[in-house]
Amino acid sequence: MANTYTQLNVHAVFSVKGRGNFLAKKWCDELYKYIAGTLKETKNYPLAVGGYKDHVHIFFELNPTISVSDVLKNVKSKSSKWINTKGFVAAKFEWQAGYGGFTYSRSQRNDVVQYIMKQEEHHGKQSFKYEYLELLRRNEIKYEDAYIFEFYDE
User: Fold this and answer.
1) What is the C-alpha separation between 22 and 6, in angstroms, rounded?
2) Is beta strand 55-61 parallel, antiparallel or unpaired with respect to 9-17?
3) d(CA 80, CA 78)
4) Full-model pTM
5) What does the angle CA 112 – CA 48 – CA 125 come to, to the nearest 5 degrees?
6) How many helices (H) and strands (E) does the chain have?
7) pLDDT by residue (tens digit) across 91-118?
8) I want to staple 56 with a disulfide (CB 3.0 to 4.6 A). Which of 3, 48, 51, 68 is the partner?
């Protein structure tokens, strides 16, 4: 009997909407755990979840029965509702529309995990805008400036 075997490692990045909705250090670990649990609900295997102030990175092994866009729609919807229910921000919390999605091989997994887990250190040296545009360039993804996230430089 034939079976399906896959290893689809996806790194996704998405950003907060609205300057007043920055992710606070005091509750981010809870958020990252919640997002990991949301990934598991759809039988995706979380490898790393992290971020910094205005964005989140998730790295997961994709369940081949669900699309990346459906995974991200679910993660963003459930996590924004969770943040609002917890009352972590004064205004209504939302994620910006869209996301960046990148794939990596098994041999690259550890490097991507380390990169995500060191986001605070990383952003002491460069902005999210620079990081995101560099990810797009490195992965040879053509983009139009008009359709890139609204970035919040501090």
Assistant:
1) 36
2) antiparallel
3) 6
4) 0.93
5) 55
6) 5, 5
7) 899 999 999 999 999 999 999 999 999 9
8) 51
